[in-house]
């Protein structure tokens, strides 16, 4: 019943998302892709501000968003899609982006389920408080950073900075 | 309260709608004196339903909308149904509608005649399917299911196009009318999308509107656009162009029962400002010629 229609739509999906033809796209196709990327960026920047800022700090947003958009099975709803995005960013090769993405995912999980369900241990390549403060500043007034609290000694590795999801005091306002 | 599309008791004055985020009561209070219909997007009201992929409607937003519905007609306009996707329309969106209809008196609802997913991928845009018999059967069958499922009028909107026309057995207007005839749904005519189509894919707007059965048109959308070179983009980030309002008035003269709704995305409201939005709604009402009163009503008033 849907043979020709499905084939047409699969070809359009390849054209628009996954299989850009070699050489420059037509102006119409380039605009269509830009519109899709702009909408996606608008939502992800709002829902994952720290990770977005970490990627932007390293000039990696376009690369990661392009990779993300080509993944099958993405949700159209931003609450779900933002978690899918953070999972990808957490698996990215950059240790700092990965740590920030895992931290932000933990924040989202904590919002969803305030009762602690266990520690989330994140290995940081550098001291997390300074990084998070800088990223929160880049995010503007939508995020505020409280005064840092001391890390429980058991949560600090001798080889790397580690934090549980309850540290430091970075709250969404 | 405004009559539902297709109702034999059309409003005696033009019905004006506004796209409301569902989360800005201060803005709603400003625009409420100037509108007859509040249009909400269920997809904008979602919250996570658990650790998995499920979403549900925000209970606080639902409670707010239930109160709003006591004062003004509430309608829904979604963006994630993807009724034209060959593999299937979105079950998640239908679950959101189930929740919405259970909690709020929704007079009618609408979606886009297109697809946003294919081969498991998000396209980031609405694309229009070929206007083939296969697509007609698929979309009309699904629209009929939706009409039966909720028992309220369901409208399908023409999408703005950038890529070349996919063609098919039907004309642009003929496909909209054929889907309506085969399913019992109506048409939401977005006049700014028509203007985009005129600039981007060479649509003959006058010909399309002349061919479209005005009895199917239950709602008309107006919104802002932006030019990118020779291409007209449908952005919803500002006030509608005078030409867009004028085009809405032309169509409304043929379909005076249709509500004319101004759309703006929530992210743009602060920059545009509530005063400018109210001015837009006033201008929209002023541009529409009131529907003539039925003879009996007019005689009763005179007497």
What does this structure look like?
The complex is a heterodimer of chains A (173) and B (303). By secondary structure, chain A is mainly alpha-helical. Chain A has seven helices and four strands. Chain A has a two-stranded antiparallel sheet. A two-stranded antiparallel sheet of chain A has the order 2-4. In chain A, helix 2 (27-47) crosses helix 3 (49-57), helix 3 crosses helix 7 and helix 5 (78-90) runs antiparallel to helix 6. The radius of gyration of chain A is 19 Å and the shape is elongated. In chain A, 28% of the residues are buried. Residues 165-173 of chain A have low confidence and may be disordered. Helix content of chain B is 40%, strand content 21%. An eight-stranded parallel beta barrel of chain B has the order 1-2-5-6-9-10-11-14, surrounded by five helices. Chain B has a two-stranded antiparallel sheet with strand order 3-4. Chain B has a two-stranded antiparallel ribbon with strand order 7-8. Chain B starts with 15 loop residues before the first strand and ends with a helix. Residues 297-303 of chain B have low confidence and may be disordered. The chains are: A mainly alpha (173), B alpha/beta (303).
Question: What proportion of the residues of chain B form beta strands (DSSP E)?
Answer: 15-25%
Largest sheet of chain B: 8 strands, parallel, barrel
Beta-strand percentage range of chain A = 5-15%
Shape of chain B: globular
Give the helix level of chain B as a range of percent: 25-40%
Helix content of chain A: 55-70%
The computed structural class of chain A is mainly alpha
How many whole angstroms does the radius of gyration of chain A measure?
19 Å
Going across the biggest sheet of chain A, name each strand in turn: 1-3
- For the terminal residues of chain A, how far apart are their CA atoms? 50 Å
H/E topology pattern of chain B? EHEEEHEHEEEHEHEHHEEEHEHHH
Query: Strand pairing plus helix content of chain B: what structural class?
Result: alpha/beta
Order of helices and strands of chain A: HHHHHHEHEEE
Mean pLDDT of chain B: 92
Counted beta strands of chain A: 4
Oligomer category:
heterodimer
Number of E-type strands of chain B: 14
- How many helices of chain B does DSSP assign? 11
Report the radius of gyration of chain B as a whole number of Å.
Answer: 19 Å
Morphology of chain A: elongated
């Amino acid at each position: 019943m849907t043979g020709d229609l499905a084939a047409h739509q699969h070809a359009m999906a390849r054209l628009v998302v996954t299989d850009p033809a070699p050489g420059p796209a037509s102006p119409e196709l380039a605009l269509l892709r830009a519109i899709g990327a702009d909408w996606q960026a608008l939502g992800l920047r709002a829902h994952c501000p720290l990770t977005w800022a970490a990627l932007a700090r390293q000039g990696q947003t376009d690369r990661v968003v392009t990779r993300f958009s080509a993944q099958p099975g993405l949700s159209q709803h931003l609450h779900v899609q933002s978690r899918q995005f953070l999972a990808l960013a957490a698996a990215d090769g950059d240790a700092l982006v990965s740590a920030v993405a895992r931290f932000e995912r933990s924040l989202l999980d904590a919002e969803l389920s305030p009762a602690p369900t266990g520690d989330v241990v994140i290995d940081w390549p550098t001291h997390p408080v300074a990084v998070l403060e800088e990223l929160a500043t880049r995010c503007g007034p939508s995020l505020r950073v409280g005064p840092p609290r001391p890390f429980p000694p058991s949560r600090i590795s001798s080889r790397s900075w580690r934090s549980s999801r309850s540290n430091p005091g970075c709250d969404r306002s | 309260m405004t009559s539902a599309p297709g109702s034999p008791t059309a409003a005696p004055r033009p019905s004006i709608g506004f796209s409301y985020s569902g989360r800005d009561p201060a803005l709603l209070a400003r625009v409420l004196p100037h509108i007859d219909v509040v249009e909400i997007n269920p997809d904008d009201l979602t919250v996570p339903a658990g650790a998995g992929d499920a979403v549900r409607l925000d209970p606080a937003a639902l409670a707010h909308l239930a109160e709003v519905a006591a004062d003004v007609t509430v309608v829904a306009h979604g963006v994630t149904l993807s009724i034209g996707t060959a593999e299937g329309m979105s079950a998640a969106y239908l679950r959101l509608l189930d929740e919405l209809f259970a909690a709020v008196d929704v007079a009618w609802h609408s979606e886009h005649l297109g697809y946003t997913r294919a081969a498991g991928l998000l396209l980031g845009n609405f694309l229009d399917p070929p206007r083939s018999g296969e697509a007609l059967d698929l979309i009309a069958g699904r629209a009929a299911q939706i009409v039966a499922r909720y028992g309220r009028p369901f409208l399908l909107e023409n999408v703005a196009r950038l890529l070349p026309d996919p063609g098919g057995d039907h004309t642009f207007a003929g496909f909209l009318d054929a889907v309506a005839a085969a399913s019992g749904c109506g048409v939401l005519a977005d006049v700014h999308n028509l203007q985009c189509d005129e600039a981007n894919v060479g649509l003959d707007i006058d010909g399309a509107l002349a061919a479209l059965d005005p009895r199917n048109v239950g709602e008309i959308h107006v919104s802002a656009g932006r030019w990118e070179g020779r291409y007209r983009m449908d952005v919803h980030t500002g006030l509608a162009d005078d030409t867009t309002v004028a085009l809405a008035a032309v169509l409304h003269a043929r379909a005076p029962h249709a509500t004319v709704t101004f759309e703006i995305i929530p992210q743009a409201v602060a920059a545009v400002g509530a005063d400018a939005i109210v001015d837009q709604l006033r201008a929209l009402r002023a541009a529409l010629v009131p529907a003539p009163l039925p003879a009996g009503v007019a005689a009763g008033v005179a007497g």
